[in-house]
Structures are given as structure tokens and as C-alpha cells.
Design a protein that fits this description.
By secondary structure, the protein is mostly helical. The chain is about 70% helix and about 0% strand. It is globular, with a radius of gyration of 13 Å.
Length: about 100
């Protein structure tokens, strides 16, 4: 896996994990866990999406997002596509987002 060189998005990542902890009652360790429980997967997917949206300059690649959440880039790509579908079709997920 690629490592974040200078970790230029460190402040955004820390702020995002704090928001998730405060609002969704989930820790950084739970986001990075290998668990496939919905209670962890949905916040992880939201985290990936927010990282992609918020880290535009310099752009945060899917590989770097994968490093942050402990996943491979291919999984990040799939989860980002699924996020778009869920936001449009699932009201419960949309309110969580």
C-alpha cells in the first residue's frame, strides 16, 4: 500500500474522525477495522466520500483514502460508487450522511 508522504491532509483527516466520533459514535479504530457490520461499514463509506469531497487541493487519491481507512484502492472505488447510489435511493443512509 502507498504511504502518505507528507500527509498533507492530516488536519482534514483528524477533523473528520472527530466529527464521526461525535456524531456517529464510531472510533477511528472501528472505521479501520475489518468488520463488515453495517454499523461500521456505513460510517466508513461516508468517511471515504467526505475525504474525497473535502481534500481537493491537493487532491486526495483513492489510494491515499484507502491508506487512511485501511482499505485497498479498489475497495474505495467500489464504496464511493455505492455511496452515490445509497444517497440517492436510501433515506436512512442519506440522513446518516
Amino acid at each position: 500500500m502507498e504511504k502518505l508522504n507528507s500527509y498533507e491532509h492530516e488536519d482534514v483527516v483528524k477533523a473528520l474522525f472527530k466529527i464521526l466520533l461525535d456524531n456517529l459514535n464510531i472510533t477511528e479504530a472501528q472505521i479501520k477495522s475489518v468488520s463488515r457490520k453495517r454499523a461500521f461499514v456505513d460510517p466508513r463509506r461516508i468517511c471515504m466520500s467526505l475525504l474525497k469531497e473535502q481534500c481537493q487541493s491537493p487532491k486526495m487519491t483513492v489510494t491515499k483514502i484507502g491508506v487512511v481507512v485501511g482499505r485497498k484502492h479498489s475497495n474505495v472505488c467500489i464504496q464511493l460508487k455505492l455511496h452515490i447510489n445509497l444517497v440517492n435511493k436510501n433515506k436512512k443512509y442519506y440522513t446518516l450522511y
